[in-house]
């Protein structure tokens, strides 16, 4: 081939390649022009999210319990922050942060020369610190702490990638991206930065300091809300974990969330998160001459979240709280080193609105604070939604402890801890104990979780215990509804001769009298003599209580509700042989053993007796109020249980006599004379001490649960259903303390 | 009878001024493009490009004044000097992603850029008297001469520039009359080398491997790929594709359109040109390049002296491969490598090398038929 032809071939190669390039440019600029122009538009502009104000939660009278306030927040961006030296201007006091690798400033903003910029030691405080009330010197330590936490996260992510996907050539890049994302997440250092300090934060010549971010945020602040309501209000905080983000993304597929978005993580804040959050606004910004996205092209303002109005008034709630704590002999009834524990809940029996809710021990969020931040702490780690799962079940998988070990644990345990059956904490509790929320003292957090004495648990909705004799009205009504012949039609002679604790010689009692005097033998022991009742009991009676909500979530808006315990159909042996022994069934009939209920479940059940047989859904939220004034009343389902009016009247009469009959169990302790209305009630004492092992073989402690449930009828008012429980040491109190508390509450309620 | 040596006046008179004009036209395109790309950037790349263009032009004329055969005669000392600089840069090099520059009295020299031209000169000298079947067996020396700078440049690491050397060798060998078999064998060896790069651990850096992967997976929404490597290519295509067919011009609109593109003044100057002048401008630019290459090849055809011929072919290959690879990579047709667009991209070493190469080809053109080989290249 001649030289000329060779060169011609080379040239033709170049022409071919040039043609290919021309075609490619034509493809991009002609065929795909629209796509690339849109991409260019997106690159030229930036959309910023405008954080909405989260809706307030107010009580029935409109008083703010929790609300958002706009604040300035100082945050640390670990990726941008590197350990820096500080210079203080002797002339004006301004603190300069020196970026690594950058030269010292030649002069201060006040024009003072370099000779007046003197180095600050790590412990020195400048005017910035004084304004902030925060030692800026600590930032380096905080950043280092965060860095080591991020290192651990990256190591965990590396393990995960290696296990799940196997390593590929992008693994290092993935890890680097993961690290970068973590390091870019700002750590709030201070909320509500004073305006005077803002000027001092802008430190370098460009008016910014890399690594320190000053931004607008909202602070969730609480009003004068008591401990009990605070607990059920729950908490909201920015997303902290991938799980948090996933949840937010499910709620808001349009993606209008960012690192500052507050999300409800517990309590009512979580339950009503969607409506409280509101909708983020958007601001389209174009670049200015300096390349910064500062020119607002289009703005869509955020929509504030709706306001949640509760059905309870703060004053009424305080009243319930006072009634719960004011009994003088309360402390004496408690086991050593155990704080009083109990609950009172009052509910409109017709609508299901919760009107008062009090719990012991009270929750004081500040008690969980750490060191100097204790008094300033504004967190609400309240009724953690997992708490219900932490309540030790009556049956925990795994082999029981050896007897010797059991005795040792019992000897070391105090008070309520002895109720942790069967003497071991569930793994989820142990895990939770090591996960103290940021800013909380670990020991205080652990103590708050030491159930059931810890303060985090909601006694109203999350702590399920044996209801004792308060279950008898429902067992009785179930027997009537089931068409069972009562132990002795018309009259039953209780000899009290069975020798069982809690069995008293009541003499001849009828159905109403058995309720009035809370006769165990009538409801339970007699079943031994009526074997023919057992099949009906384990089928129809059991189904009756199941339908009444025992063993089920009530559907309440109180977060993290405990479903309690009621034997499932299989356990009752509805289809085949029952797994429960008749004797255990007798125990259940008097509210002990295989039955656990929360005060919320009890007040719901007793409300059905009060309102004529309708099962309502307890709820604390009453209405949602939009920023434009529109009000949406919340509705919750209710079910007509279809009870026979005659049967219901017999039960109601029995409960009336509990209070007003001289033989009634509450007659002596209940201040019925002070209450302008008619009260029906039922006492109950669930003895779960060791002496009751035949009935409750898994019990370990000597605690009793004292109950009083019932309702108040007044002219012109809906019936007010209530449930009171104390977890006390007195074994034979027969719910007297609880009845007195209920009386004190009802007196105050009627007098308000 | 020996022809008398050409005077300086003869050289200027006989130089291919159209070729120089085309080179200057391409430089003009570069000045406009770099000026547009440099808006808002520091240092002022536009003015610095003007400075380098003037220096380059001066160097070009200087080279025109010196008989190219003297340069070819000095090929081995020059080649050795080039290798020395490449070794030196491994120890004292500076640069953002790889140590590629040597700081020298306020100037930054990129030895690999200079080495491209030195290799062309060396190959032209080494192959000028190789004839007929001999050439088929004697490709060992040129191969060795090429492999040495390839390895050193790869060690910087600068894979893009290293990949440029083998095409130069192939083009010069082909022009020198090498037959198909050695060329095929060398092509296969090159392919094997590429496969080894990919499969033998440690030969490629992680980012190089990932760049290639990102190129293969254009349009993939893997956030790591897109963020770390695909983003650059995506932005490049966005700048090209968002420009109208007749271009945005060089006003604010174009400035705004290219603002987000990294390295827009250097390796990614072509997308800036595409946006500013559109497909119409690209057509003109491609024609300019083709005419430029064509004139260089015409010079090779006209001259009878073998080293001059090979020098012109080598320089043509140098310009062609650089230009085509640069444009192709910014359009997503090839993986992204660090390679400037001759005369257009900002870069002192690159511009200087381009003008020196142009000066050598002008020099070759000015000294037509000064010495004959024993036979024509067949």
What is the gist of this entry?
Chain A has 752 residues and is an alpha+beta fold. Chain A is built from 24 helices and 24 strands. In chain A, the strands form seven sheets. In chain A, strands 2, 3, 7, 8, 13, 19 and 20 form a seven-stranded mixed β-sheet that branches.
Structure report:
The complex is a heterodimer of chains A (752) and B (378). Chain A has 24 helices and 24 strands. Chain A has 752 residues and is of the alpha+beta class. The longest helix of chain A has 29 residues. Chain A starts with a helix and ends with a helix. Chain B has a two-stranded antiparallel sheet. The longest helix of chain B is centred in the C-terminal third of the chain and has 34 residues. The mean pLDDT of chain B is 84. Chains A and B meet through α1, α2 and α5 of A and α10, α12, α13, α15 and α16 of B.
Number of strands of chain A: 24
Mean pLDDT of chain A: 74
The count of helical stretches of chain B stands at 17
Instruction: Output the structural class of chain B.
Output: mainly alpha
Share of helix of chain A, binned: 25-40%
> In percent, how much strand structure appears in the residues of chain B?
under 5%
Give the CA-based shape of chain A: elongated
Principal-axes shape call of chain B: globular
Q: Portion of residues in helices of chain B?
A: 55-70%
Q: Which stretches of chain B of 5+ consecutive residues score pLDDT under 50?
A: none
Helix/strand/pairing category of chain A:
alpha+beta
How large, in whole angstroms, is the Cα Rg of chain B?
21 Å
Give the distance, in angstroms, between the N- and C-terminal Cα atoms of chain B: 26 Å
Mean pLDDT rating of chain B: 84
Number of strands of chain B: 2
Q: What is the beta-strand fraction of chain A?
A: 15-25%
């Amino acid at each position: 081939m001649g030289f000329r032809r060779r060169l011609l071939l080379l040239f033709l190669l170049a022409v071919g390649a040039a043609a290919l390039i021309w075609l490619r440019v034509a493809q991009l600029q002609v065929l795909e022009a629209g796509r690339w122009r849109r991409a260019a538009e997106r690159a030229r502009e930036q959309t910023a999210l405008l954080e909405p104000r989260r809706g307030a939660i107010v009580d029935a009278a409109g008083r703010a319990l929790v609300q958002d306030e706009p604040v300035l927040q100082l945050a640390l961006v670990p990726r941008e922050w590197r350990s820096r030296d500080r210079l203080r201007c002797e002339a004006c006091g301004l603190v300069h942060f020196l970026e690594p690798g950058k030269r010292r400033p030649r002069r201060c903003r006040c024009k003072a020369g370099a000779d007046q910029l003197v180095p600050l030691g790590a412990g020195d405080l400048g005017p910035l610190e004084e304004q902030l009330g925060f030692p800026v010197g600590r930032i380096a330590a905080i950043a280092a702490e965060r860095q080591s936490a991020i290192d651990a996260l990256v190591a965990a992510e590396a393990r995960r990638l290696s296990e799940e996907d196997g390593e590929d050539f992008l693994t290092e890049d993935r890890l680097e991206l993961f690290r970068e994302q973590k390091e870019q997440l700002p750590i709030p250092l201070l909320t509500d930065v004073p305006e005077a300090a803002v000027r001092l934060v802008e430190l370098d010549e460009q008016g910014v300091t890399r690594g320190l971010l000053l931004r607008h945020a909202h602070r969730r602040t609480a009003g004068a809300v008591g401990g009990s309501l605070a607990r059920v209000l729950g908490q909201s905080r920015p997303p902290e974990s991938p799980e948090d983000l996933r949840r937010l993304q499910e709620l808001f597929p349009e993606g209008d969330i960012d690192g500052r978005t507050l999300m409800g993580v517990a309590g009512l804040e979580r339950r009503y998160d969607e409506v409280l959050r509101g909708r983020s606004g958007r601001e389209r910004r174009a670049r200015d001459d300096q390349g910064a996205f500062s020119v607002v092209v289009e703005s869509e303002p955020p929509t504030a979240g709706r306001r949640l109005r509760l059905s309870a008034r703060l004053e009424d709630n305080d009243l319930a709280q006072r009634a719960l704590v004011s009994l003088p002999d309360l402390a004496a009834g408690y086991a050593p080193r155990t704080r009083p524990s109990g609950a009172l809940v009052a509910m409109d029996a017709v609508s299901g609105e919760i009107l008062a809710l009090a719990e012991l021990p009270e929750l004081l969020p500040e008690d969980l604070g750490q060191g100097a931040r204790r008094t300033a702490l504004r967190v609400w780690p309240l009724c953690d939604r997992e708490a219900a799962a932490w309540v030790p079940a009556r049956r925990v998988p795994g082999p029981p402890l050896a007897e010797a070990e059991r005795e040792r644990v019992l000897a070391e345990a105090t008070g309520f801890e002895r109720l942790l059956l069967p003497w071991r904490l569930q793994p989820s509790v142990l895990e939770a104990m090591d996960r103290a929320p940021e800013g909380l003292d670990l020991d205080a957090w652990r103590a708050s979780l030491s159930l059931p004495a810890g303060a985090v648990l909601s006694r109203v909705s999350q702590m399920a215990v044996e209801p004792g004799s308060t279950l008898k009205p429902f067992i009785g009504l179930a027997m009537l509804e089931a068409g069972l012949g009562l132990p002795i039609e018309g009259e039953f002679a209780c000899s009290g001769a069975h020798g069982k604790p809690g069995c008293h010689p009541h003499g001849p009692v009828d159905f109403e009298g058995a309720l009035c005097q809370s006769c165990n033998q009538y409801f339970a022991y007699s079943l031994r003599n009526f074997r023919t009742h057992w099949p009906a009991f384990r089928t129809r009676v059991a189904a009756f209580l199941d339908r009444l909500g025992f063993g089920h979530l009530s559907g309440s808006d109180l977060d993290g509700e405990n479903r309690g315990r009621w034997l499932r159909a299989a356990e009752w042996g509805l289809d085949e042989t029952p797994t429960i022994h008749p004797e255990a069934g007798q125990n259940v009939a008097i509210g002990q053993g295989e039955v656990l209920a929360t005060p919320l479940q009890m007040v719901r059940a007793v409300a059905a007796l009060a309102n004529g047989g309708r099962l309502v859904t307890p709820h604390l939220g009453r209405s949602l109020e939009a920023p434009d004034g529109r009000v949406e009343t919340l509705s919750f389902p209710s079910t007509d249980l279809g009870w026979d009016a005659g049967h219901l009247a017999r039960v109601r009469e029995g409960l009336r006599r509990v209070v007003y009959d001289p033989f009634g169990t509450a007659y002596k302790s209940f201040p019925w004379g002070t209450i302008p209305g008619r009260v029906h009630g039922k006492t109950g004492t669930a003895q779960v001490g060791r002496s009751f092992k035949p009935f409750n073989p898994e019990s370990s402690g000597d605690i009793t649960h004292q109950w009083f449930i019932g309702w108040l009828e007044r002219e012109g008012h809906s019936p007010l259903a209530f449930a009171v429980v104390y977890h006390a040491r007195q074994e034979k109190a027969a719910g007297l303390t609880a009845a007195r508390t209920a009386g004190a509450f009802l007196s105050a309620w009627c007098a308000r | 009878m020996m022809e008398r040596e050409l005077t300086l006046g003869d050289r200027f008179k006989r130089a291919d001024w159209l070729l120089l004009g085309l080179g200057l036209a391409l430089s003009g395109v570069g000045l406009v493009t770099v000026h547009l790309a440099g808006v808002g950037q520091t240092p002022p790349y536009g003015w610095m490009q003007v400075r380098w263009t003037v220096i380059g032009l001066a160097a070009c004329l200087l080279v025109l004044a010196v008989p190219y055969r003297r340069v070819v005669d000095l090929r081995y000392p020059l080649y050795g000097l080039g290798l020395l600089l490449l070794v030196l840069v491994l120890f004292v090099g500076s640069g953002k992603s790889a140590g590629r520059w040597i700081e020298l009295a306020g100037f930054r020299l990129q030895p690999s850029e200079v080495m491209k031209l030195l290799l062309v000169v060396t190959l032209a000298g080494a192959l000028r008297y190789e004839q007929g079947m001999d050439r088929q067996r004697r490709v060992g020396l040129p191969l060795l001469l090429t492999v040495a700078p390839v390895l050193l440049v790869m060690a910087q690491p600068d894979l893009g520039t290293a990949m440029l050397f083998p095409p130069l060798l192939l083009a010069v060998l082909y022009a020198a009359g090498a037959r198909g078999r050695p060329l095929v064998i060398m092509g296969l060896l090159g392919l094997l080398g590429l496969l080894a790069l990919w499969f033998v651990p440690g030969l490629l850096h992680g980012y190089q491997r990932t760049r290639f992967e990102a190129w293969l997976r254009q349009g993939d929404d893997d956030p790591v790929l897109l963020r770390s490597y695909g983003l650059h290519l995506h932005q490049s295509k966005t700048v090209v594709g968002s420009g109208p067919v007749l271009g945005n011009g060089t006003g604010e609109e174009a400035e705004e359109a290219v603002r987000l593109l990294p390295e827009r003044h250097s390796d990614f100057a072509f997308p800036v040109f595409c946006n500013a002048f559109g497909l119409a401008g690209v057509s003109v630019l491609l024609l300019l390049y083709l005419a430029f290459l064509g004139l260089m090849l015409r010079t090779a055809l006209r001259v009878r002296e073998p080293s001059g011929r090979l020098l012109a072919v080598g320089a043509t290959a140098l310009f062609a491969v650089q230009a085509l690879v640069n444009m192709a990579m910014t359009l997503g047709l090839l993986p992204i490598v660090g390679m400037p667009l001759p005369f257009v991209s900002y870069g002192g070493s690159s511009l200087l090398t381009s003008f020196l190469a142009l000066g050598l080809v002008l020099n070759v053109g000015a000294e037509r038929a000064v010495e004959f080989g024993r036979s024509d290249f067949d």
